[in-house]
Amino acid sequence: MRHLRLLQQVSEIARAGSIRQAAEKMNITASAMNRKIQDLEREIGTPIFERRARGVKLTAAGEMFVRYARSQIADAERLSSQVEDLRGLRRGPVKIACSQALALDFLPSQIGAFRKDNPRLVFDLKVMDHNAAINALIEYDVDLAIVYRATIRPAVRILTSVPQRLVAIMRDDHPLAAKQTLRLSDCVGHPLALPDQSLGGRQVLDEVIARRDFRFDVMAESNSFEMLRGLVLRSNMISFQIDIGAPRGEFGMGVVGRPIDERDIPRSDLVLCQLRGRILPLAAASFADRLSKAMA
Asked: Are strands 268-275 and 144-148 parallel, antiparallel or unpaired?
C-alpha cells in the first residue's frame, strides 16, 4: 500500500495549508514532498494545489482529490483493522471526537469496560465543540463523534440520539443543593460560572435568557468544564452541564448536580454519529454498538 503514503501527504498538506509544515510532520524534506505532488499533478493532468507566497490552497480539483484520498486512507485503515482482528490483535485505533461533558466519566468508563475484553485496543480521543467534531468526522479524522446539540449535515448518519436535561452544578453545601429540582429563577442572586458561547449548554441558556427577564450574576466564563468545576468547588459558584456529564459517585468530589425544571429548559439531544456511507473498522463499529447501548 505504498500509494497510501502519497495520499497521506496530500491530505496532510491540505490540512496544514503548507507543504513545509506537512513535510516536517511527516519527516520528509519539503523539496521531496513538493516533487511528489508535482509528479501527481502531471499524472492527473491538473494542479491540485494553488501555490501562494504563504502556503498552498486546494484547487477545485484538489478538493475532489483530497476527499478521494481520505476515503482511500479510511478504507485502508478498515482493512488493516479487519486483518488484525483475524489475527486476534484488535489494536485499533478507535478515533473519537466528543463533547467535554463525556470526558471525565462516561467515555473513560465505557473504554475501561470495553478494554477488559479487548486489552490491546488503542483509542485516539479528541475533545472539541460540536461543530469541530462534525467537521472532523466529515474529514475522516475520526470514526465516531458524540456531541450535544450538533447541527447534523446530510453527510452524517446518527447512530443514537438521547435527550439530555441541563443540570445546575454546585457544591454539596450550597443552599440550593437541598432542592431536588431547580427553576432557573432559583439561581438569580447566586454567582454563576458559565460555559462560554462555543458550548451547547451555554447556547441553550442564552436562548432561554433571551426570552426571560432574568438578571444573573455571571462572575466567570470558560470553555473548560474542568475550570468551571474548579470555580464551583473553590469559589462556591453555580455552573451548568448536561446530565451525562453531571457529577456523580467518586467523581462528585464535593460537587453535586440538580436538574433544571424542563418548563424552563427543554431537553436537547446528545448524538452518536458516523460518516454516512462509511464502513467503520471492526473495532470502531464494535465500540459504537457498546456506546449506543450505554446511551439508550
From this structure: antiparallel
Q: Which set of grid coordinates corresponds to residue 93?
A: 485505533
Q: What is the pTM of this model?
A: 0.71
The per-residue pLDDT for range 116-141, each reduced to its tens digit, is 888 888 899 999 988 899 999 999 99
- What 8-state DSSP symbol labels residue 193? E
In this structure, what C-alpha cell is assigned to residue 106? 462516561
Q: Which cell is 146 given?
A: 458524540
Proportion of the chain above pLDDT 90, given as a percent? 69
Q: What value, to the nearest 5°, has the Cα angle with vertex 47 and ends 55 and 38?
A: 80
Residue in the structure block whose three cell numbers are 435527550: 163
Quick count: other Cβ atoms within 10 Å of Cβ 123?
A: 17
Instruction: Report the C-alpha gap between 89 and 101 in whole angstroms.
Output: 31
At residue 294, the pLDDT reads 94
Residue 151, helix vs strand vs coil = coil
**Contact, 142 vs 275, CB < 8 A?**
no
How many alpha carbons fall within 13 Å on the CB side of residue 232?
Answer: 30
Alpha helix segments (H runs only) across the chain = 3-16, 19-25, 30-44, 60-86, 106-115, 130-138, 200-211, 225-235, 282-295
Task: Name all contacts of 64-71 with Cβ < 8 Å and 24+ positions apart.
Answer: 65/10, 66/10, 66/11, 66/14, 69/7, 69/8, 69/10, 69/11, 70/7, 70/11, 70/139, 70/140, 71/140, 71/278
Q: How far apart are CA 97 and CA 129, in angstroms?
A: 9
Is the pLDDT at 1 greater than 60? The verdict is no
Quick: pLDDT tens for 7-19.
Answer: 999 999 999 999 9
List Cβ neighbours of 43 (8 Å cut-off, separation of 6 or more): none
The residue with cell 429563577 is 185
> Given pLDDT bands bounded at 50, 70 and 90, which one contains residue 2?
low
